Fold:
Amino acid sequence: MSPSLNFVRTEGVEFKYSKYRVIEYLALSEHANKLEIENRKLKLELESFKEKYDTEPKLIKKCFVENTKKLTNLLYKQQHIDKKPSYTDPNKFIKMLEEHDESLVNMFYESLDPESKIKDLEKLKLRTMILLYHLAGLRNQCINNFKQSLTTFAD
Structure:
C-alpha cells in the first residue's frame, strides 16, 4: 500500500509530499525545538558558572606566587636541610608534591600544556618538572642541585 500523494499549488508551482514525509518533518522540527531549548538552558548555566568562578588576574597572580614560594621552600628544605638529591623522575616528583601540599600538585597539572605537540605524557611531565625546578631556582639560587642531577642524568 503506497502512501497517498497530495498536491499543493503555490504561485503556479506544484509540490508533492507524502503523509510520511510531513510526519517525519514535524518530528524533526519538534526535536530541533527541544534541542534549542536545551541549548538555551546550557548557555544560561554556563553564564552562571562564569559569574560564579570569574577569576581576577590578581587572584591568579597571588595563587601563582604563593605556590611558587611553597615550591621553592619545599625544594630548598629537601636539598639543603634534608640533604636529599633532586628528583629526575616526574612521578616521584609528583608524589613528593602530594605529600607536601595538594595545591602544588594542582599547579603541576595545570602547567601541563594539553595542546603541546608532545603527545607522550611522560615527556610532558618531565618538561613540566624541569620548568618547576627552574621557577624555584629563579626565586632562590641555592636550588641548583637539579641542574647538577640533570646533567648527570643526561650523561
